[in-house]
Amino acid sequence: MEKVTIRFFQARSYLESVRAVTDWFKELEDRLPTLGHRNWLAIVDMAFPDLVAPGIVKIWTNADLLRVLSDCLRLIQRFPHIKPILWLDRELDFVREEEAPGISQYRENLKVTLEKLPVKQENHEDIIKRLDEAGRTFTVVLLKTRTCLPYSSVFVELECGYWDKTRESHLRERLVSP
Fold this sequence. Notes:
By secondary structure, this protein is of the alpha/beta class. The chain has a single domain, classed as RbsD-like fold, CATH 3.40.1650. The protein has helices spanning 2-17, 24-31, 65-77, 103-113, 124-137, 165-176; strands at 19-20, 40-44, 56-60, 82-89, 119-122, 140-144, 154-160. A 7-stranded mixed beta sheet has the order 1-3-6-2-7-4-5, with helices on both faces. It is globular and about 60 Å long. The termini are far apart. The model is unreliable at 1-21 (pLDDT under 50).
């Protein structure tokens, strides 16, 4: 009994430390004009760790992960200065249904949600390191959801919406030999 009470207290303390936002969508909508390339959005499951790098902004959504992800992607489309590159935990493909009931349906729904978008996969720990490193210099908006499925988090690296790596490479070449 006492362990349950302690676990509840710890979860409650964590949720209190995450900024309570009645309208997380409005909070994100207000932030997106100031975000650009090298910024990140992280739409994460309940067990995702509390990152503490100075640039990490945490928002408790109290919503389903796929719903938050869909809303974020629609919102990003409204801003011409950014485009998303999505990152998934490599481990997600290897979680079995009998170990995490609902994971198969989640993967199917995620595939539909991310259709036609660039998606990369990397080990979970490596993605966390990327976020931690980015959060030391740039803003990372972490949107915590109530989804309880392992490795279900989706990470959105923001790129410039009106410039790409090919054009940047050509520019760099011209700078070296004008």
